Amino acid sequence: MTTTTDRIQPDQTGDVSNRVRIFDTTLRDGEQSPGCSMNLDEKLRVADALEEMGVDIIEAGFPIASNGDFDAVSAIAKRITKSTVAGLARANRKDIDRAWEALRHAARPRIHTFISTSPLHMKFKLQMEPDAVHERLIDAIAYARNLCDDVEWSPEDGTRTEHDFLCRCVESAIKAGATTINVPDTVGYTVPEEFAALISMLMNRVPNIDKAVISVHCHNDLGLAVANSLAAVRVGARQVECTVNGIGERAGNAAMEEIVMALKVRQDVLPFHTGIASEYITQTSHLVSTITGFQVQPNKAIVGANAFAHESGIHQDGMLKHAGTYEIMTPESVGLHKSTLVMGKHSGRHAFRSKLKEMGYELGENELEDAFHRFKDLADKKKDVYDEDIVALVDDQMLHANDRVRFVSLQVIAGSKGPQSAELELAVDGETKTTRATGSGPVDATFNAIKLLFPHSARLQLYQVHAVTEGTDAQAQVTVRLEEDGKTVNGQGADTDTLVASARAYIHALNKLLVKREKSALSAMSA
Ligand code: KIV
Ligand code: ZN
Question: Which pTM was predicted?
Answer without folding.
Answer: 0.86
